[in-house]
Amino acid sequence: MPVYEYTALDGAGKNRNGIIDADSAVAARHKLRGSGIFPVEVKEASAKPKDAPAGPIYLSTLFKRVKPGELSVATRQISILLGAGVTLVSTLEALISQTSNPVLKKIMAQVKESVNEGNSLASSLAQHPKVFSQIYINMVRAGEASGSLDLVLDRLAEYSEQQHTLRSRFKAALAYPIFMFFVGSGILFFLLTFVVPNITKVFSDMHQTLPLPTILLIGASGFLKTFWWLILAVLAGVLILARQFKKTPKGNYLWDDIKIRVPLFGMINRKIAMARFGRTLGSLLQSGVPLLSALEIVRNIVNNALIADVIDKAMVEIEAGSSLAAPLAKNRWFPPITVQMITVGEQSGELEKMLDKVGDIYEKEVESQIMAMTSILEPVMILLMAVVVAFIVFSILLPIFEMSQMVR
Fold first, then answer.
1. Strand-pair partners of 17
2. How far apart are CA 140 and CA 126, in angstroms?
3. How far apart are CA 373 and CA 212, in angstroms?
4. Alpha-carbon distance 154 to 146, whole Å?
5. What is the dihedral of CA 380, 386, 392, 394, to 10 degrees?
6. CA 395 and chain centroid, separation
7. Which residue stretches of 209-287 are H helix?
8. Average pLDDT rounded to a whole number, residues 116-131
């Protein structure tokens, strides 16, 4: 449904500006008059700024989306205003007026109109699944049911910020090694395709028997210079096939199996899954979501088919009367410390706090392991680069030394 910006006069004759969700400009005017506001100007809202260049597509907003950080800030602002006693509709109006992201502004306008029509906030948010996740909607629904929406939204903002921080640290830690890999690959490609052929051409013109390292270097250089496009095509083809295979249930299961078994990275992926499990389940239970409903959400958050299967089996046993810890203890992917903390939480009646502690423990472990991994990766990559460059230099100098010995 389109969103319209309006300039209007209220009953006291004061100017009012805002946006409204309606089928057409005429319908928007009727809506405004029905709420006691007299429209002066109504026009369809656009993401394109006034000073943008003319054209059918405005490229800077083509890929505009709602970032996790923007959503966290908006969630916390709603929580603060609701906690201060402001009504939900007024809170949404205030949020719309100060939101700079045009996509989020339009979505919140549609949410406000849906709430104005008598729908709950959770059902209004559920109409935008690409922006509001399942955990977000279910926590809001639980907050509305318990009458503590402001507290739940504050907890939800904190949860979103923690998850965003964890992802950001992971990306930041891997940024330098990835940058080094591409820079190193580019340098080696330049050496092998431009520098080495010009130097080794002298050896080929002398028609002398060359050492094995020099022969291998000349062969690798010639192949890379002639068939670099074939190498790129094969790599692209393998990546495309792998992505297509990963989309199948069997491929996805195999990929998730590899992710948690591969040395070094497997341990980090398992701990990330445990951090998500503890943090998400704890937040949902604190917000009043029933255990089985919370587990159904969590199985999609852990982002691993093997651990999701474990949660599915646990849900079946819990429905049959089992505790949460008992079925998890039977599987190798849930570490003993996680199971013990869940057991203590169930026995003490503080399962939510224990799950939060599980999230804290594994988030800190993930952060420390990522830092340790990157501190190892950087010198290893530099060492590999040094070995390759040393081999190139050695392969070039070796025949020169041999020729100098022959001259003597």
1. 7
2. 10
3. 36
4. 15
5. -120
6. 45
7. 212-246, 249-261, 265-286
8. 88
Contacts of 311 (CB under 8 A, 6+ apart): 277, 295, 298, 299, 302
Report the candidate in 84, 74, 86, 68 with the shortest Cα–Cα distance to residue 140.
74
User: For residue 61, what pLDDT band results from cuts at 50, 70 and 90?
Assistant: very low
Hey, is 130 helix, strand or coil?
A: coil
Q: What's the rounded Cα separation, in Å, for the pair 289 and 305?
A: 23
pLDDT of residue 386: 87
By three-state DSSP, how is residue 15 classified? strand
CB atoms within 10 A of CB 360: 15
Buried b (16+ CB within 10 A) or exposed e, 30-62: ebbeeeebebeebeebeeeeeeeeeeeeeeeee
**Tokens matching residue 28:** 């928007």
Give the model's pLDDT for residue 62.
41
User: 57: pLDDT confidence band, cut at 50, 70 and 90?
Assistant: very low
Give the H/E segment covering residue 142.
helix 134-146
C-alpha span between 311 and 45 (Å, rounded): 45
Q: What are phi and psi of 342, to 5 degrees?
A: -65, -40
Structure tokens at 2: 């389109």
Would you say 273 and 306 are in contact if contact means Cβ atoms under 8 Å apart? no
* b/e burial code for range 76-91 (CB count within 10 A of at least 16 → b): bbbbebbeeebebeeb
| pLDDT computed for residue 339 by the predictor | 92
d(CA 20, CA 117): 12
Among left, alpha and beta (phi > 0; psi -120 to 50; other), residue 19 is: beta
Nearest to 203 by CA among 396, 3, 401: 396
Place of tokens 């849900």: 315
HSE-up (13 A, CA, CB side) for residue 128: 22
Count of CA atoms in the C-beta half-sphere (13 A) of 176 = 15
Tell me the sheet residues that pair with 3.
21
Q: Is 89 helix (H, G, I), strand (E, B) or coil?
A: helix
pLDDT tens digits, residue range 296-325?
A: 888 877 878 899 899 999 999 999 988 999
How far apart (Å, rounded) are the C-alpha atoms in residues 120 and 128? 14
**179: which 2 tokens?**
């940058």
